[in-house]
Amino acid sequence: MRRGEPALTEGPYHHGNLRAALLERAETVLAESGADGLSLRALARDLGVSHAAPSRHFRDRQALLDALAVSGFTRLNERLRAAAEAPGPVPARLAGLGRAYVEFAVAHAPLLDLMFSAKHAEDSSAELRELGHRSLDTTAGLIARAQAEGLVRPGDPARLAQVAFSTVHGLATLAVGSLLDDTPLAEATDLALDVLLTGLARPHR
Asked: Which domains does the chain show, CATH number per domain?
């Protein structure tokens, strides 16, 4: 360090907050520059800590990316669980779950891409795979309850949940790609969920 040059310190992060700060900054960089723009050294520089400081929390760049994916799935699962456990009839909760997914997917598109890439990687961790399946399990559980109440058509709840996810994920992908033309996202979401729930409903005899 040259004379007169300020020393790098860990400021407020040396008390255990550095990991959270690294993840927060990494998610910002991911949204702005994509995964290719992420490096531990650059994050250390952004946060004003020594270039070696991040290694105490992440052994390498891949560990950072995996931690971002875990954080993303944890937050998504919390939102979906809250929607599934909200008061009200099951169809309304299914619709709320769908809206929660669309809102998260559109607001955090680069993170969602990273989450799915990390989940499907050959060396993905058991924790990441479990977290990645939890949203489907939450939806399947709610569909099974709706089936028990005679509100949803018979069928494997997990497969019906996959179809439901394909609908809301497809809508979110169109929204992120600016492919909804002049249709407001909220209006498109309401229509997609109406069509989805109509299709899931138990047929009248």
From this structure: 1-58 (1.10.10), 60-200 (1.10.357.10)
- Can you give the pLDDT of all 205 residues of the chain as single tens digits? 333 433 344 444 544 589 999 999 999 999 999 998 899 999 999 999 988 898 889 899 999 999 999 999 999 999 999 999 999 999 999 999 999 999 999 999 999 999 999 999 988 999 999 999 999 999 999 999 999 999 999 999 999 999 999 999 999 999 999 999 999 999 999 999 999 999 999 987 6
User: N- to C-terminal Cα distance for the chain?
Assistant: 80
Model-wide pTM > 0.90 = no
